[in-house]
């Protein structure tokens, strides 16, 4: 009888832990969706932004990831510059 009670408690705890993990996974997925939409908003905001190198506003910027991992927008004039620095094209 005691073992049945212990077994029931164990199953209840396992179910609880499983449910908590599922919930955690669901929230992290939701956060990722929010982050993605925020990222997209940022990307649209980057349009018509000044070039990271010469500060001239350009409608057509090429985006690169620099050595620090931050995104730089480069105009057509400064594009060879970025390519010479071997920045990763985004
Ligand atoms: Zn430029």
Q: Biggest sheet: strands side by side, in what order?
A: 2-1-3
Determine the strand fraction and express it as a percent band: 5-15%
**What is the overall pLDDT average?**
79
Instruction: Spell the H/E element sequence.
Output: HEEHE
What kind of oligomer do you see? Answer: single chain
Global Rg: 25 Å
- Helical fraction equals 55-70%
Q: Helical segment tally?
A: 2
What structural category characterises the helix and strand content? mainly alpha
How many discrete structural domains?
A: 2
Stretches where pLDDT falls below 50 for ≥5 residues?
Answer: none
Number of strands: 3
Bound compounds, each kind once, are:
zinc ion
Main beta sheet: strand number and arrangement? 3 strands, antiparallel
Distance between the termini: 64 Å
What characteristic shape results from the CA principal axes?
Answer: rod-shaped
